[in-house]
Every structure is written in C-alpha cells, then in structure tokens.
C-alpha cells in the first residue's frame, strides 16, 4: 500500500493557519502529517492547536456532512488549548445572556471603525447559508460565498474564519481529490483578500456585498490545484531569518 502524499493537505493547513499567524512552514506541516505528530511544528505560538484543530474539524464535518450540524461540529472540534479557541466550542453566540458572546471586529483602529455581527445567532441563521448553497449552482464560487457569509455572521465565540474555510471545503466536497479551497498563496494577495473580506463585513446592501465578494474572488489563485500538489519548494521550507522587520503597513 503506497504512502499517502500529504503535500496538498499541508498547504491547506498552512493556508488555514495564515488566518491566525501560523508560523510553521509547509514542509514542517507535511512532516507533522507524515509522522502523525505535532513535534516538527513550531512549538511556540498557536501552531499545534491550529494543526490539531484543523484535522479535527475536517474529520468532524466529513462524518456529519455539510449542514448546520456539520458547521457546528467543526467548531466543536476546536478544543486544543490555545488563546485563539472559543471558550465554549460549538456554542452559538447569544450576547443577550453571555458577555463572552458579545464581539466586534476591528476594521480600522485609527478611525475607530468596527464591525458588529448579530448579537444572537441561531441554527436558522446557519440554515439560511446552507440552503443558499444548496439552491445555488454548488460550484466553487458558491462555496466561497459560504465562507464569506459564515465569516461575516461570526456564529461562534472564536475560530469563525477557520470554521468557515473548512465548511466551504465541505460544501465544495474537496476531500476526495484534495483540490482544497485555499487563501491566496502570497502575502500581498492575502492582504487584498482580507481587505475585501472586511468590506464584505461592512456591506449593508446587495450591491456593496457583491462588489466586495468579487474583489475577494479576483485575488484567489487561478491555478490552485496545480500549486497544491506540486513538490514543496525551498521557499516553503525556509525558516524565518533573524533580521529586523520594518512593516510596510503601520498603525501610526
């Protein structure tokens, strides 16, 4: 029996982790998958939790399927100790009764601009997203709409974008061929994608929502499947250099 090639899955987990400052390389992640151990990963930060929870979330939704229960099952799997975890995994937020459920997303700290998602999220809200996909063409565009709508809804206390990306892959059923939906591979496109997602959060009408969504789609990798399965390059195995970093985007 041939050994499983974990290259594409390693790239998916690294892409998923980029939502939470995942620091391990694609090569490290592949080695962790090959060895079925988190030991090759960076041992500081949140990498171990992101890695283990990604596998747990994928396994949960594979078993349950893309549905309201499946989306909740993904977040329920986020239990590895980490500051990025929901206090109550799988719990749908209700800000009327629980102070921890009241969240806001900072869009522009200087302008004091924040996005406030609904205070109360119900299974009916999740069903609306599931039904919209079921009634669509069920193509990749529709699957990315699942990601955008779940991320904007912020149904859980934490791990919402990670939950949304795994759920989008479940909707697109990427598991068999490992043609995972992933974020842009390079940092500049990923910044553009995140900025467009923030615009999607703030959109209050269909026209603004569609414009922001189109911006997101425009920077996604067009040759994703080829890049997911190609051999790992030297840059994907490179450890961060010990240099002084000067950020291009500054807060002040």
TrEMBL record:
This is Fic family protein. Residues 66-216 form the Fido domain. It holds the Pfam family Fic. PROSITE patterns: FIDO. SUPFAM superfamilies: Fic-like.
